[in-house]
């Protein structure tokens, strides 16, 4: 019994948070994001685990994840790799299956989502007993770093059109820094078929459709420092297609 | 009901209301003055909405927060994390 107490929350409220970190070529970023997660979870005292879902990254992300597991322990860092790149949606489904927490954080491993906001997500969730809490770049102190005028315009424009067409009841639809009740996420993710940016949007639109309650926390989004960022014409076209699909089907 | 159907429904209702007044579709004897006001109304509304959209998006782009502090903090923490992880034996 004595061994079991060490993994329990110092707060003793019985909640456990599983962080899903899908990675593809994040060798530079993974140690840093894990370090930050450990820091902020440690300071706030919530019980947690980090689940790394690596899709056979050629840059050796998995190898560095194994080192991190040795440093921080197998109860904190779980590795659930897959052999090849199968996409984000199925990476989440794969991760949830192995999650032991009753709450799930979804965030990117590329350091654009800062773990310092995690305590705020948790407090927000507790305050309103929300089914999901979504990070938002568009409200309060939220914002972005490293975006030029063109990217800001596309982002604001796309967001405006989406708000008008879908009235989703959340300000940031394409962001992917979110906290879910595990059951809610399990139910939602199976209904969602879109890819890329639209996937995150579909998740929140369907959440609203199913009458789940949504809380929001302003976040600062710092565009990736290491690795390539992409926002080309292809992304925009597939975003519009996805938007119209959701418009016609939800 | 899908969003698409909601939109179609609202559009049809508005179109019907417009036809009743501007075209006096039911021959209800809508006063001429009222018909003349109603006739270009859809266009006015469209233009107004377009202006509202442009102004809103423009304002939001202009007031999009630049999180310089957040980037600065992250940079510092990356340095700290690298040091600490190296000390803990991580081979980069
Ligand atoms: N397991 C897995 N992870 C992925 C896959 N594609 C992307 N990821 C990870 O998912 C997160 C988000 O992907 P990003 O490439 O940052 O996508 P984005 O944030 O939309 O775009 P940029 O940051 O602008 O490039 C990162 O942690 C990636 O490493 C995949 O196919 N499988
Ligand atoms: Mg990213």
Describe this structure in words.
The complex is a heterodimer of chains A (250) and B (92). Chain A is α/β, with parallel strands linked by helices and 250 residues long. Chain A has one domain (16-249): Spore Coat Polysaccharide Biosynthesis Protein SpsA, Chain A (Alpha-Beta Complex). Chain A contains 9 helices and 9 strands. Chain A has helices at 2-5, 29-44, 61-72, 88-97, 118-128, 149-166, 182-191, 196-209, 233-249, and strands at residues 16-23, 47-54, 77-79, 103-106, 132-136, 143-145, 178-181, 214-218, 220-222. In chain A, the strands form 2 sheets. Chain A has a 7-stranded mixed beta sheet. Chain A has a two-stranded parallel ribbon with strand order 6-9. In chain A, helix 6 packs parallel to helix 9 and helix 8 runs parallel beside helix 9 (233-249). The radius of gyration of chain A is 18 Å and the shape is globular. Residues 1-7 of chain A have low confidence and may be disordered. With 92 residues, chain B is mainly alpha-helical. Chain B has 2 domains: 1-39; 40-92, no CATH class. In chain B, 75% of the residues lie in helices and 0% in strands. Chain B is built from 4 helices and no strands. Chain B is elongated, with a radius of gyration of 29 Å. The mean pLDDT of chain B is 94. Chain A binds chain B through residues 31-32, 35-36, 64, 67-68, 71, 111, 114, 138, 141-147, 149, 152-153, 155-157, 160, 164-167, 220-222, 225, 246-250, and chain B through 2-4, 7, 53, 56-57, 60-61, 64-68, 70-71, 74, 77-78, 81-82, 84-85, 88-92. Magnesium ion (MG) is lined by residues 108, 110, 112, 224 of chain A.
